[in-house]
Structures are given as C-alpha cells and as structure tokens.
Specification:
With 428 residues, this protein is of the alpha/beta class. It has a single domain, classed as Alpha/Beta hydrolase fold, catalytic domain (Rossmann fold). Helices cover 29% and strands 12% of the residues.
Length: 428
C-alpha cells in the first residue's frame, strides 16, 4: 500500500477512495484503458492474456554491429542510395541494408519502410512509429507483452503497411494531406527507449539501441534523398519523443536543408511535471548520456559529479530551439492525454516506480509551459480530450477542429508557409 501523501502537492489524482492503494479497481480500469489505447497504436495484436510478471529473454542472435551517431559538429555521412522501388507502394528494407546494425529489444533484427512519391516530389517525411517505453518492471511488461513493441520485422511491417501505412499523414487519398505527394519513410519502434538509447544491455539485458538504429539508417537515407528540397521529421508518442531527440542527427546529415520537426504526443515537460528521479531511470537504463543531442552537460536526471538535477526534457528541447532558429518545430497534443499523464505520473509515486496518474489540471499546466517556450520557430496544436496520439485515426487529423482549423490545415501551414498560426487554440 502507498499513502496518498502526494495529494498535498496537488500534482496528481489519487486512484482510490481516500488513499492511493496499488493495485486498485480504479487504477486497474485505467491500465486496461491505457493498454487498449496503446495497443491500437501498435501494428501487432495485443497479448493481454500474458502474465504481467513475465520477463522474456532477448532472442538469441549475433550481437548488433555499431553505427556511429551523428555528433554535433561532425561531418554528415553518406552511403549508397537504397535500391529503386515502385512509386506509391511500401517496401521493406531489412537490417542487411544498414550494416546489419538495427536491433529490437528482443534481440531480433529490424529495418525501415519506404514509399516513394508517385510524382517524384523532392520532399520527404520521415515518420517514427510509437509504442511503449521500457525502463522498469511495469513499463517493460506493457511494452513487451501488451503492446508487442519489442519486435518489428518484415511480417510486422506488412501488417502495418496495410493499415496504418495508408492513413493519417501517410494517406495519399486525402487532398487535405500536405504530405500526400511526398516520399514517405517509416522507422519502426521496437527498442523501448523512445529512440534515445544506445545500451546493448538495457533493462534486464535487453538491447535498447533506438538511437543507434537511427544512426545506421541516416547514411543511406541521405544518399537516397540527396536531391530533396524539404524534409519533415515526425512521429507519434514514443516516436514523437524520438523525432525531437534525433532532430540534431537528421539536421547534421541533411545539412543542405532546414529540417522541420513535428512531435505528436511526446510532451517535453519541465522537471516539475517529470521529476528528475524518473529522468535518471531513463538516462541510466538507456545510456542516454552517450546519445545527448545537445552540447555540454546532459540535462536529464542528475549530474554525475555534483548530483544536481538538470534542466530536464523542457530544458533539452528549449536549447535545441534556440540553437536552430532557422528550423521549424511543432508539438501536438490532446489537452488531457491519459497515456502521458500515466507515463510521467510514475515519477510522482512515492518510489518513483509505482503507478500514478497526473491530474488533468496539472498536465495542462505542463502543456502551457511547453507552449510558452521561447522561439518564433515553435508552434503548438492542442485539441480537446484524453486521447493519444493524433497521428493514428484519419478523423483526428481531417475532421476535428480547434478554433475552426483542422490539424491537416494547420500542418499545411506549418510546412508550406511562414505565417502559420503558432498557438492553437489561441487561448489555453
């Protein structure tokens, strides 16, 4: 049992009659809802009948090769272009095309998907898939078992391409979609580290190498799209965090472009909302100090020498905004995103490991902090409700309006003009 001492800080919602008692019927319902919602964003069927205590061992396979991440100031790498493919059709390229580097956290190999523009447009959107994070027992149980985000091969990709690969930002049939005539790249998520890790032995021995995977793709992507005149890096949920975290890698590689970054439902909240103890778990489990996209001390968790807490996710992203004033950045979220309230709420539990749900009011305060980041190059779009994410259902992108504007219309302005509405809704 846990006392609901955190109520006095007004940071979260107690999930029992009077005190926070784990597990509770209320929180069980929340977890079921979260599992169902997150599973709907995964390309593989949910496996909710598996025991939560199971700890699957990584698959036996050769150890992954290493790919050097693109460090700040390093020259952009260039490899051979990917082979020609049929325009308008998704094609899978496995690990063998990328030095046999890309690995999932079950030890299996992975790759990426490519759908070339039917009209030969010189514009590219790179989409980073979402899924669950894995850094302790409860989160890894969800990621491994309920969400099946520990594996993504050609078979998984084929299923994804038939469903998720033809809707939302990848829907070539919707005239309102600003990306309908672009080259499409999909980077699958199966590392459990929001594409920020470089740890061959992460939580309980899992290889969590999402950042290294991305680094292995970049040389061939740069060569394939060497004639591109625009590139948008985006993703949803874990992929939203991944887009923000890997932006510097992409910008260094595609140095002849000003890369646009659009983060769907990966809120870079300030430390008040995402405590340093939680950041430290991510940092240590995923070896994030090896992949930092910013110069100077790594801002997540605690400094190894002084023990002082860093500026956190908010500080990391703010420094990127300031360092790249010519680039466009955007963040999209539901105002009361239930999944993110749970994800960041873990840091507010008494052990920094138990289940906890941030109150809607407290989460909205965090979104206001993000909205208030300095920089004319940063836009936000906040819609109503507790949903997560936006880049999944067509209805969320094309039908729902905020201040009279759909997400599709807002995105069109973000990627095609300099006069986009920077804050939607106008009042939040």
């Amino acid at each position: 049992m846990f006392s609901c001492a955190l109520r006095r800080r007004q940071r979260g919602t107690c999930l029992a009659q009077a005190d926070l008692i784990v597990p509770t019927k209320t929180f069980s319902r929340v977890l079921v809802a979260l599992t169902t919602l997150l599973a709907s964003c995964s390309s593989r069927p949910a496996q909710v009948d598996a025991p939560a205590s199971a700890d699957p061992s990584p698959a036996e396979d050769a150890p992954p090769a290493e790919a050097e991440p693109v460090e700040p100031g390093a020259p952009a790498p260039m490899g051979d272009p990917l082979p020609p493919t049929a325009p308008g059709e998704w094609t899978w390229f496995g690990a063998e095309e990328f030095g046999d580097v890309p690995r999932c956290m079950d030890g299996s190999k992975t790759g990426l998907g490519l759908n070339r523009a039917p009209g030969g447009a010189k514009k590219v959107v790179v989409f980073m898939q979402g899924g669950g994070a894995c850094f302790d027992g409860q989160t890894c149980a969800l990621a491994d078992l309920a969400l099946s985000t520990d594996h993504h091969d050609a078979k998984d990709f084929a299923a994804w391409a038939k469903k998720e690969g033809v809707r939302n930002v990848m829907n070539r049939e919707r005239a309102e979609n600003p990306f309908r005539d672009w080259d499409l790249v999909m980077i699958p998520y199966c590392s459990g580290d929001v594409f920020a890790g470089d740890n061959p032995s992460g939580f309980k021995g899992r290889p969590q190498l999402g950042y290294r995977n991305v680094a292995s793709y970049l040389p061939r992507l740069a060569s394939t799209f060497r004639d591109a005149d625009q590139l948008v890096l985006t993703g949803m949920s874990a992929g939203g965090y991944g887009a923000a975290y890997n932006f510097v890698q992409f910008q260094r590689t595609f140095a002849w472009l000003d890369v646009t970054m659009i983060d769907d439902s990966g809120p870079n909240l300030a430390t008040r909302y995402t405590p340093s103890c939680l950041q430290q778990k991510w940092k240590q489990t995923w070896s994030m100090d090896k992949t930092s996209p910013v110069e100077g001390p790594f801002p997540l968790g605690y400094d190894a020498q002084s023990g002082v807490a860093g500026a956190g996710l908010w500080g990391l992203f703010q420094s990127i905004l300031e360092r790249y004033p010519k680039n466009k950045f955007a963040f999209i979220s539901h105002e009361r995103d239930m999944v993110m309230r749970y994800f960041h709420g873990i840091g507010h539990s008494t052990s920094c490991a138990g289940p906890f749900l941030l109150s809607a009011k407290f989460f909205e305060e965090g979104l206001r902090d993000i909205r208030g980041m300095k920089g004319d190059n940063f836009s936000t779009f906040y819609g109503p409700g507790t949903g997560h994410p936006y880049f999944y259902d067509d209805a969320e992108m094309y039908d729902v309006t905020v201040d009279g504007i759909t997400l599709a219309s807002w995105l069109t302005k973000v990627v095609t003009t300099r006069d986009e509405p920077r804050r939607v809704p106008a009042q939040f």
